[in-house]
Amino acid sequence: MNQPLRKEWEEFYPLEKKAATGRRPRPKKSFNLSRSRIPALIGVFLLAYMAFSFYGQFNKLANMRKDVSNIQQQVQDLQQKNATLREELRMVQSDAYIEKTAREKIGLIKPGETRVIPVEPGTQVKGIQSPSSQNVVAD
């Protein structure tokens, strides 16, 4: 009874013939995830991605540190410039500086002083004005 069924079975599902060496043919391998290379490849790609990400982040961090040091240097320079300007402002607001500027730039004199203007040799003098009350610096 087995024989007719076997013949029918072989007609629809033929069995592989034995190899000429007399050994049984090897069965087809089924996919085994634990033995495949896919997890290893995924791990390698994951490590590579993490390495590039860390490199990028460390590069950004180094650039930010450079920026911070540059900004700190600029702050120090501006603080020094600010101190210099404050000193100059204090000096400009003093009475001595105001008097000096009035004498040198505007040509004002104090009451009782005589104004002396040096003239280069060979220069013709058209007219000399006498000091008036408008050109006097009051005490």
| Element-level helix/strand string | HHH
Largest sheet: none
Q: For the CA atoms, what is the radius of gyration?
A: 52 Å
Strand content: under 5%
Number of helices: 3
Distance between the amino and carboxyl termini:
144 Å
Weakly predicted, low-confidence segments: none
The overall pLDDT average reads 80
Helix fraction?
55-70%
Globally, the shape reads rod-shaped
Which secondary-structure class do the elements indicate?
mainly alpha
Transmembrane segments: 38-56
Pfam families: DivIC (PF04977)
Protein name: Cell division protein FtsL
Keywords: Cell cycle, Cell division, Coiled coil, Membrane, Transmembrane, Transmembrane helix
Highlighted features:
mainly alpha
List the helices and strands and how they pair.
Blueprint: H1 2-12, H2 38-92, H3 95-106
Coiled coil: 61-95
Protein name: Cell division protein FtsL
Organism: Pelotomaculum propionicicum
Characterization of the model:
With 139 residues, this protein is an all-alpha fold. The chain has a domain at 37-106. Helix content is 56%, strand content 0%. It has 3 helices and no strands. It has helices at 2-12, 38-92, 95-106. The chain is rod-shaped, with a radius of gyration of 52 Å. The model has no long low-confidence stretch (mean pLDDT 80).
In short:
This protein is mainly α and 139 residues long. The chain has helices spanning 2-12, 38-92, 95-106. It has a domain at 37-106.
